[in-house]
Amino acid sequence: MKLLLDFLPVLLFFVTYKIAHGDPAQAAALATQSLGFLTAGGVFTPEQAPIVLATGVVIIATLIQVLVLMALRRRVEPMVWVSLVLVVVMGGATIWFHSDAFIKWKPTLLYWGMGLALLGGRFIWKKNLVQTVMGASMRLPESAWTKLLLSWVGFFAAMGVLNLIVAAQFSTDAWVNFKLFGSLGLTLAFVVGQGLFLARHIQPGSDA
């Protein structure tokens, strides 16, 4: 269920954008009617409406995600809170200024924020946060934990840069596709690579 809750906001963003992109005139009317009060001009054009509607939906979906976790008395992970703040701030700016640039920056800020958190844990608090999360279920040499941490830092840094490249060099439609399929595919490939790395270094006595 947690995986579904984590994935749902991105999926709803994608679906909303695609539906609105298929009928931009109707999307503009709906966006103006439902979100016009949140913007200075009060009116959205057919070109602006798909990303505006998708942004409004992802803000609501992320809020619901947090509320459901709280209602179920589940722990809301720190990065979920960070994601909520970013999507409200950057998404709100997208709606207010009629500009998709803000929501396109959100994934990059989240990726870089996660990478900086890992680095901060290692060099400021002297903790390997990857080991903190995974250490209870497996035993690895200290050098392997360090490599694992640095690989995640590198992955988050690269994904942040890649998101900006796609956002700047391709259409909004292409960026929306990348946000769902590209990011998910690259993350799955990275996790598989991490699994192969762990298989080589895991020590006897691990629960994994």
- The averaged pLDDT comes out at 90
Radius of gyration: 19 Å
Domain count, please report it.
2
Strand content: under 5%
Helix and strand pattern: HHHHHHHH
End-to-end CA span: 22 Å
- DSSP summary, beta strand count: 0
Question: Could you name the ranges where pLDDT drops below 50 across 5 or more consecutive residues?
Answer: none
Protein name: Septation protein A
Short note summarizing the structure:
With 208 residues, this protein is mainly alpha-helical.
Describe the structure.
This protein is mostly helical and 208 residues long. The chain has 2 domains: 1-98; 100-208. 78% of the residues lie in helices and 0% in strands. It has helices at 2-22, 24-35, 49-71, 78-97, 101-123, 129-134, 142-169, 172-201. α2 (24-35) crosses α3. The longest helix has 30 residues, at 172-201. The chain is elongated, with a radius of gyration of 19 Å. It comes from Amphibiibacter pelophylacis. This is Septation protein A.
Topology of helices and strands:
Blueprint: H1 2-22, H2 24-35, H3 49-71, H4 78-97, H5 101-123, H6 129-134, H7 142-169, H8 172-201
Structural descriptors:
208 residues, mainly alpha, 2 domains, elongated, Septation protein A
